[in-house]
Each structure stands twice: as structure tokens, then as C-alpha cells.
Amino acid sequence: MTGEVLGRGAERRVRSAGGLVRLVAHTDPVALVGISLSIALSVTLDLTNAATGVESLLAGLMGITISLLVDSLARAERRFHLRTLLDGPPWLVQGTPQIVAAVREAVERHAETRVAAEAQRRYEQFRVEAEQLAAGRIIRPGDDDEDLMGATRDCVRRMSGLTNVTPRASGELSWWYSDIGRRYWEANLAALRRGVRITRVFVHATLTDELSELVETQRRAGVRVGLLPLGVVGPHLHVNLTLWDGASCWEARMSAHGEITENRFSVDRADVDRLTRVFDQCAAAATFRN
């Protein structure tokens, strides 16, 4: 019986300590410092007889009151900022509290487990991806061609592409004959039928029969194709890219074996301008045949 009472007492102390920790965690640091200084001032005035007991108490209470007022203003400002952030589409306003509540429950309910660690990792990943979206970028795995296809279907005026066929990226040419490459070419043909002007430059180490056949196929379909031997431009221009209507772009991040590991679609003006400069320099150095 005594052990049970002691156990309950220990549990109450743990809960009280946990409540104190949560209180401290949710209190503005400025308020905590202000309250601590107010208490220290009150004690100092009383111990040094610089003020009467009542005056020391009033000075401490006044400092604590000011600190709590500052804390209240800070909380109000944070709530106003949060409401401003959530002043958006209904799906954002309704979904954000649910996401935050779910992550918090996972971390608190399953503390110090793999679940809590994974919840934090996924939240951080979501934060990074959201920041990329805010910058106008979509980053997808190498086998996800959704943006490449979608932007080609949406193109209405002009489309520019740069494909590198080099010894280090020899697999890039076979990409055109893969399932993704064939779907992309079909989207190119549909764009040509809509009146879209397509210009494509192939950077190559060797003009093989396979590459020549691919180039002629695209030329006959109506694509303006240029050939650029490897070494004519600097290595920093060896980029696989596509530009649509001067408003959006796609860039492939490659592995050492020439495999696409990451697809980067962007409507960010800086990204579009950068890849436009890359394409223009390569196109200026390429050989086009009418």
C-alpha cells in the first residue's frame, strides 16, 4: 500500500515536472528573463534593506506584470502571423492543423522511438520540398516524367531542347527509345501538329549511325535539329534541358553512368534565364541543316 502511494506521488511529481517543462517551452524567452529578473530584484531589495518588504514585493510584482504583458503581446503577434499564413485556399487552412497535430502526436506519443525520428525526418523533408515549391521548382525522381510530358503537352509557341550524347552519358541516346523517350517523342509530334516550333541540339562525341538516324527522324517530323561536337563548348554547358515558351524549364541531373537521377522542373525566372543562356550558347555553336 505504501509502495502504491509512493508510486502515485512520484507519478504526480513527474506530471508536475512535465507540466512545468511544457509551460517553460511555450513561454516567450523574454517573459522568462523578465520574471526571473523581477524576482531577483525583489529579493535583492528586501535583503539589502534598500526598500521595505512591501515595496520590494510591489517592485517584483510590477516587473512580473510587465513581463507577462510582453509575453501576451508576443503570443498575440504569433497568432496573428499564423492566421496570416493560413489565409489561403480552403484545403490549406483545413489541412495544416491536421498535419501539425499528427506530427506532434507521433513525436510525443512515440517519443524516443523510430516512429518519432521518422516523423521528424518526413516533416523536414516536407519543409524542404515546400521551400522548393515556393521558389517555383518541382523536383522528382529520375523515373518520374510527369512534368516533362505535361509541360510539352501545354506548350503553345516554342520549345527548345539540349541533349548530350557523350561517352560518359552514352545511355542518353537509348533514352529516346525507352518507354519514356517514346512517349516524349509522341508529345513532341503532337506539339508540332499544334504549330509549336521545336529546336533541339544534340551534343555528341561521335556521330554514329544511330544518332544520325534519330536526327533525320526528328528533322523529317519538323524539328529544327543542330549538331554540336563535344569539346566545342565548355563542360559547364553539358546540360540536358528543355525550355517551353520561355516560361518554364526542365533539367536532368545525371549520374556518372549517364542515367537520369533527378528531374527538375521550374518556373523560377532565374532558372529559366540560366538554362536559356546555356541553350543559346550551344545553339550558336551548333551546325543546323535546313
Automatic annotation (TrEMBL):
<protein>
    <submittedName>
        <fullName>Uncharacterized protein</fullName>
    </submittedName>
</protein>
